[in-house]
Amino acid sequence: MAGVRTVNGDRPASSTYVRPLERCDPAPTVLCVASDEALLSSLVSGLERADPDIRPLEARTLAQAFQVLDAENAGCVVSALSLADVDGVQFLRQIRAKYGDLPFVLVADRGSESVAADAINEGVDGYVPYEDELGDEAFGTLVDRIETVVRDYRSHRRFEDATDLLFRLTEYTTDVLWMFTDDWEETVVINEAYEDVWDRRKADVIEDPTDFLEGIYPDDRPGVLEKMEVISGGDPADLEYRIRTDDGVAWVSAHAEPVLSDGEVEHVAGFTREITERRESTKQLEALVENLPVIVFTFDADGVCTTSVGAGLEMLGLEPGELEGLSIYEAYAEHDDLVDAVNRALDGEELRVTLEVEGFVFETWYRPVFDEAGNVVEVVGVSHDVTRLKEREDLIERVNEATRELQNARTGAEVGRVVVEIVESVIGCPVTAYWRYDDENDRLEPTAASEPALDIGDDDDVSDLPHIEAGHAEMEVFRTGESRWVRDYADLTDPAHEAADLGRLLLVPLGDHGMVNIGHAEPGEFDDFDRYLVEILGQTATSALNRVERERALESRTAELERSNESLQQFAYVASHDLQEPLRMVSSYVSLLEAEYGDMFDEEATEYMHYAVDGATRMQDMIDALLRYSRIRTEGDDFVEVDLEAVLDETRRSLKLLVDEEEATVRAGDLPRVTADRSQVGQLLQNLVKNAVEHGGPEPTVEVDAVVEGDRVHLTVADDGPGVDGSQHERIFDIFKSNSDGTGIGLAVCERIAYRHDGDIWVESDPGAGATFHVTLPAVDADPDPGLDPQSAAVDGGHE
């Protein structure tokens, strides 16, 4: 094409890596061609002798030569000047026609210089003359020439292959790759992408290198021409500009570099990229940043602002770009926290901080930008206004603080009063009132109200507010249990307070306890956040009312238990005085009757008398056991540190007769100390060991053991008897249902002692495998409560 320059010669230096196409060059294969048999033989043997690495091939005619070249990968042809059918020059022409630049060396005897000159003009790669015959000197010259022309040929082929790869690469990129002479008068390189990007013919810019200027948007053309002069002057350049295409106007970005030779600009080269979509995205992003309530800024390593954009600047009374060029340290010197954050970012820390500036609260993110050496060169920051969010967080905290007072409220009316105060003073809704549900009359009764709520209806006191009856709109909301907001109170059908001059209203049921009505004088809608706060308050108030109700029920139960305890104490007094005296009288007179008249009784009468004495004695024992059972909580000793091993030793001594009689064995491991009533622990162990001996197998074995489990000591007493049926595991602890002490009350006493110590007792047993009784008692330092009585135990979750 006209105007196109091609670059030939050595491959230019470049930072671009291109893989070598061949790692190493093999020794050349040389085709020797001569019709003279002696000369052909001399060529072959002489080459082998001069360079053993050379692989010679031979041909006597042109036909043979072309057959060998087609079959073998020959790197060079060595031909005699005179051949049978043609001369060497004609042979050279045919080689060039078919094999291009394949190296060709001509050997000729002296006296054929004119023919050799013709061959050189035809482009022969080497000419080696000889006289009479080829000697070693001539072969040395021939081998040197072969190596030179083969090396040049291979180098040229590599260069062409690499060039072909690079040119193919230009066809695959979507960027326009170009190169012009330094005066922009010749096009050196232009790829196919030019037509796709510019919508202009490549042939036109090849013919006229300035043709591309016609495609540039007129307003941008002067700027492009200015940059062209900069590049021709030896400096690189970057710019963005518009071009006219078939689809309208497109944006492109160009980067250009001067190509120097011996310090002088020889070419200008670069690439042009279509950036319309990126430009539009950037424009949209800039518009977004400019309109979002944020501030996007950057500052350099010295703390000087280099960028400041975003609608958030308006909050600080600033225009976009107004901070640029100012030192952050000077502009905000009085804000120590901000200066500290800037210093940390410049030290390389990425951080997010919340700061107050000019009465506004901003959450700011700082991100340092590093150079290749790891030094901070710039900090990018984004500030987001969180003032409203901070205010809401503070308001939530104030609501939480205020609702803590609900924990101290002891009546429903007090809960209602606190709720009204919180809504009025903290949330800021002045017209507030609380109605309590009266289930007996099925209505909501006014209990607490703010002053503005009374003023709305010209009421003097809370009691003057109307009751909310069945059929009123407010009662329907209460029955649903779901909050409802009303834009205008006048829109309600059948409101409870028709005379109230009330606008918007929020009705919040508090479970089945009542309802809070929150309003404003003006119609409208409630802010979502205010509704959220009221919902939280409503849930908290409902929980407080539930607690008040539970406490009231608990107090009632406590009073009932106290009355029951008084009755139990009265029974204990009667049992210890009034019941025992007649029983002792019966027992005494029966004994006297037996002593005075016993010899007059026959055998049957004596048996009856024995039954009467035994029954009176057992009755006395049962009364005594019942007294002990009732006094476990009322007359127990203080809790002290108790040595279980010492108590078990005492138990063994007191049960020695029983143990010996049953030929029993009582074994114990290491028993830890407990914090307990020592006498009651002794009674507990005696009842359990006695029960194990009496219900064990023949010559029973009783195992006593205990381990510390946290703040509890887990005591076990095991026997080897027949065991306890599963249906009786709970029943045996009922009063008069066991026989561990002969009265049927022993295990019930054990249970009562365990409960007094805030512990537990249970039995584990499989039929035929014995029984193991488990008891938990306070460990040493477990902080027991020795003051628990049956009533308080029930109140605090005890076992009564």
What does this structure look like?
The chain has 800 residues and is α+β, with helices and mostly antiparallel strands. The protein has 5 domains: 29-169, Rossmann fold, CATH 3.40.50.2300; 173-274, PAS domain (Beta-Lactamase), CATH 3.30.450.20; 280-385, PAS domain (Beta-Lactamase, 2-Layer Sandwich), CATH 3.30.450; 387-634, Beta-Lactamase (2-Layer Sandwich); 636-795, Histidine kinase-like ATPase, C-terminal domain (Heat Shock Protein 90), CATH 3.30.565.10. It has 23 helices and 27 strands. It has a 5-stranded parallel sheet with strand order 2-1-3-4-5, sandwiched between helices. Helix 1 (37-50) links the parallel strand 1 (29-33) and strand 2 (55-59). The chain is elongated, with a radius of gyration of 57 Å. Residues 1-13 and 786-800 have low confidence and may be disordered.
Outline:
With 800 residues, the protein is α+β, with helices and mostly antiparallel strands. The protein is built from 23 helices and 27 strands.
Question: Keyphrases for this structure?
Answer:
single chain, 800 residues, alpha+beta, Rossmann fold, Beta-Lactamase, five-stranded parallel beta sheet, five-stranded antiparallel beta sheet, 27 strands, 43% helix, 23% strand, elongated, disordered N terminus, disordered C terminus
